[in-house]
Amino acid sequence: MPAELLHRAQAGDRQAFDELVRPHRSELLLHCYRMLGSLQDAEDAVQELLLSAWLGLAGFEGRSSLRTWLYRIATNRCLNHLRSAARTAAVTVPSPPLPEPTRLGEVLWLQPYPDALLDGVADAAPGPEAQYETREAISLEFVTAVQLLPPNQRAVLLLRDVLGYRAREVAGLLGLTEDAVNSALKRARATLQASRPAGSPPPAGSATERALLDRFVEAFTVLDVDALVTLMTDDAWVRMPPLPFEYRGSDTLHRFFSVIRAGIGGVDRMVPVRANGQPAWGEYLRDRITGGLHLAGVIVVGLSGDRIHELTRFETVVAPCFGLPRTLAQP
Hints:
eight-stranded mixed β-sheet, 13 helices, Nuclear Transport Factor 2, Chain: A, alpha+beta, globular, RNA polymerase sigma factor
């Protein structure tokens, strides 16, 4: 951090401030997303933290790095949001009516994170205390599990096990004792360990991944129920935030996909994108009147070995983040 740039920013030079914080914006957005589970909420939090940092920069004395100071503001902004906001989402009645779910999900506000926003993120090289590789720490499964932790446990786990800060540093960032940090981390680790998948995903772009995804797209476009279930692990999940319905296990998923097939018949086009370091697609259906293709949702899959262990479908509100058009011209 050039001292001259800092001095200019502290003297009220907004352009200098923007240059000062620009290298950290991508990683701060990702941190806020992990804290809040929603890209929209994370973007709002980053705007709030930058305003707070601008207003408080004159008081920055350099006792920590600027990056750590920004993480302190970001984390506490997210904690304030979690403690004050009711985390709900508008729910519409699905059509066709869905079968009885395995359970009602709690993370209705979950949104995917475009891989395009991961380029150049600094925490790809986390500190020495980190316990999670970057690919796992951005996965939908990880972000979903983190959302179920109490706010303080969530913040401690992300700062310690994802970003790699030491317990003493985290205590200073959050205004806690080291004992409180270690206790919160122990509970958070125990909760997340129970939700970690048994297998690892194949390398992105590998022959194993490509073969599995080709089979998935082929089965999903025609909604071949038997083929889809065969591609999924025996304990695979299907989730559809903001709908609260979650389905798990081969028999349950067979019933679920059978209902979907009866309702829509099939999917006419799948446009590949990537989200949360995972394969994803825009799902397009043909309009029976115009013949054009309209976006129906965004599908993200989680892989374990050579099978799918999680499928999450999001509504079209997230499409602009992936550059997916609302409609496609008739081929």
